[in-house]
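Onboarding guide, step 5: your first structure request.
Type a short instruction followed by the sequence, for example:

Predict the 3D structure of this protein.
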Amino acid sequence: MKKNILVVDDSALMRRVICDIITSDGTFQVTDVCRDGLEAYEKLKSTTYDAVVLDVNMPRMTGLELLEKLQQDGIKATVLMVSTLTTRDADVTIRAMELGAIDFVTKPNNIIEAKGDDFRRGILNILQAVTKSENSKNALNAPGKVTPALEKSSLKRPKTLQRAGNNKLIALACSTGGPKALQSVIPYLPADMNAPMVLVQHMPKGFTKSMAERLNETSKVEVREAEEGDVLKKGCVYIAPGGQHMEVQKKADGTHVIRLNDAPAIGGLRPCANITYKSLKTSGYDEIVCVVLTGMGADGTEGIVALKKRKPVHVISQDAKSCVVYGMPKAVVDAGVVNEVVPLTDVAHTIIKNVGVQ
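The system replies with structure tokens like these:
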């Protein structure tokens, strides 16, 4: 049986292009189309779809306003956003994913790009992954407000924490469902976390900056989009910029710095977590705590396997039940390199249990 998709966009041309892309895959059929969020809201009140492809900017009710309304009314939906590459839309899109949108694809600048392979693959790959996951519908109804770090949370600060001694680094990778998942991890890390963190979230240029700023506002650790030459400091989270690979390099004085490059995408991914993990083979850290959260594919597994041959590693994987898409965590589990499998709400606690506080 084909999966039923709702397409919501105020442009008749874009609706047609998106519908053609979706129906080109025999797995899906476009059951309904809507011109704005208000029309879509009326449909979603009475009809259940396997997924919704939702534009950001529309008259009467925007995509963001629709998500807020659905959340208020407790209406479940698996939502894929379509966003332009503007700073304003990046901010809105990150907020949409905080509300529970599963992922997004960037809207092409013209009809030629819209009919190109990149846009087509982006939509179909995400739809194929999320329509297989029942958890994708639940993301929309999770609380949209981020709770302040270590307050009003089921995450408890460990009673016995490791103190300064071992020189450790946290390296986290995530993809589809990642922006929402990170809200349940980063804001719960203490400011005195005894390690820096490098973080790879699959995302285009511009969006990672918005995500970093949003996380920084709600976290006790410092969160920033990584820049070339950044010196890694404990209690700081460095997010790989969209559109660039991120590596960690050890300097002669023992410090470690961020190195960014524009090398070709690996398997369509830039940034690619495997590149970050592999760069840590020559680092000066005593142990790398690798964390793999929700996401399509297997990025991170090859890098962790290679890193494990050269360095002590401790691998934490998000469990299947709490993943929007159980792809990347499953791959690392199947590779036999995982030390702990935990639900999303326990990830921050597990990280601190392993690296301690200063």
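Each response can be followed by summary notes, for example: Confidence is low (pLDDT under 50) at residues 143-165.
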